[in-house]
Design a protein that fits this description.
single chain, about 325 residues, mainly alpha, 2 domains, two-stranded antiparallel sheet, 15 helices
Length: about 325
């Protein structure tokens, strides 16, 4: 009797451990590998490609100032700052502003290919290589949004982002090599981007809480007084301490929710709406080029793909009703 009890308890523990392992494996497979419509990642591809193109449009007027041979940073200094062994096509090319222009144009063309879904994976890979090379050529002009650009563009290489609303899908359907109905794929690449975004918000909250002005509720006061970043004047409401504290602590709560509660289906849309309001508010108040639009694009990744497809069908239906029966809107992505 006394020797059987420990053995029995050990057997129960082992059985529970195996059951837990099976549950974790099943949850893992559901989260990363259960097929979903590709419409969500396709919408994100379009938005992300647009952000990349906007990034190049902002850089183009001062291209040679920042990246040229007679620019503010020589190749040698840039390499000393970034260290050896970095992905940088400029190190393999001859010197000259013509090569700078060629790499820039090729990267912009690849970004356009990503946006319209033309040779999507190849375009994403080329855009990533060009993006990283340009960032390594002059790291002094970068901010946190550029790090996000690199990480997400890399993950898009592995996503089936070109299998809906793309030139690739149009060509495949013309050849008869793709079914007419919705395309389903394992969303593991999209999940990795979602996790990257959630970790970004979580780390943001963690770092902010280390600062006393975020804890005492006055951080937004100092942020809104940085005149070099000012875009539009704020209403007089933000001269009151209670409003400053509400904005400071409220932004922390929203960012914390975007790291955690956004995964809860019933809370997802309120959290996404709060996040969109936060980023649009910062975009109104502060001139930090593109960062808020990158984050707004990332929020669309959390919208269920079925909802994205349903919304697209409603838009296409209303467009056909407005433009007439000859409007060529597709019945499915």
């Amino acid at each position: 009797m006394t020797t059987g009890a420990p053995a029995s308890a050990g057997g129960v523990t082992l059985s529970r451990g195996r059951a837990l392992g099976r549950w974790v494996a099943a949850a893992w497979n559901r989260f990363f590998h259960r097929p979903e419509p590709v419409t969500g990642i396709a919408l994100f591809r379009i938005l992300w490609g647009g952000c990349l193109l906007a990034n190049w449009a902002l850089l183009a007027p001062d291209l040679f100032t920042w990246l040229g041979e007679r620019g503010v940073l020589s190749r040698e200094t840039a390499r000393a700052l970034t260290g050896p062994g970095r992905l940088d096509v400029f190190q393999a090319l001859p010197r000259g502003d013509g090569w700078v222009a060629l790499v820039f144009a090729a990267t912009a063309l690849a970004s356009l290919g990503l946006a319209v879904g033309c040779f999507t994976r190849t375009s994403a890979a080329c855009a990533f290589v060009g993006l990283v090379s340009i960032h390594h050529r002059d790291p002094l002009i970068l901010h946190g949004g550029d790090t996000l650009l690199r990480a997400v563009t890399f993950l898009l290489v592995f996503a089936p982002a070109g299998e809906a609303w793309s030139v690739d899908r149009w060509r495949a359907r013309r050849r008869g090599t793709m079914p007419l109905g919705p395309v389903l794929h394992a969303p593991w690449a999209q999940r990795l981007i979602q996790i990257q975004v959630a970790v970004l918000y979580a780390s943001t909250v963690g770092w902010k809480l280390l600062g006393p002005t975020w804890r005492d509720g006055t951080a937004v006061y100092y942020m809104t007084r940085l005149v070099e970043f000012e875009r539009f004047p704020l209403p007089p409401l933000f001269d009151h301490l209670w409003a400053i504290r509400a904005a400071t602590w409220g932004s922390l709560l929203v960012e914390a929710a975007l790291a955690t509660l956004v995964w809860v289906p019933r809370l997802r849309y309120p959290v996404l709406a709060a996040g969109a309001g936060l980023h649009l508010g910062v975009e109104y108040a502060m001139n930090v080029p593109l960062f808020q639009w990158l984050m707004l694009a990332c929020l669309t990744l959390f919208v269920p793909p079925a909802h994205v497809a349903a919304f697209a069908r409603r838009v296409a239906s209303r467009t056909r009703a407005t433009c007439g029966a000859t409007w060529p809107g597709p019945a499915s992505p």
